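Run log, item B.
One chain of 131 residues. Sequence copied directly from the ordering sheet:
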Amino acid sequence: MKLADADGRERSLADWRGKTVVVNFWATWCEPCRDEMPSLERLKVRFAGKPFDVVAVNVGESPERVARFTRDVPVTFPIIYDKDSSTAKAWKVRGYPTSYVLGPDGRIRYYFVGDLDWSSDEVVRVIESVR
């Protein structure tokens, strides 16, 4: 997966090698996606200083539209853009949001379709178990 961020800088999953990563496919028009963004941010903050990150893959929208959304719902994790939905198709995303938890080796350990409270104790325990 090589996708650009809002500044046009290409990002690859290799950038996060050695970390546990939540890869979240989403769109601003998707109400459940919008609802779960704050909990993804809380999860990111909870694991600050640890080998962990959240990467949001926006599907099919412009950086300008996403910037309008993040003015109201600020996030500190990277957002990258799947402009033609090819990455979502390659990852077999069938609905939004869809999230994958990758281990430090880059392998998918868990996936979830639908919104989730990422800051719940149960989810945090699952994330902590991925090594």
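Observations after the first pass:
- The chain is about 30% helix and 30% strand.
- The chain has one domain: 2-9+30-129.
Flagged for discussion on Thursday.
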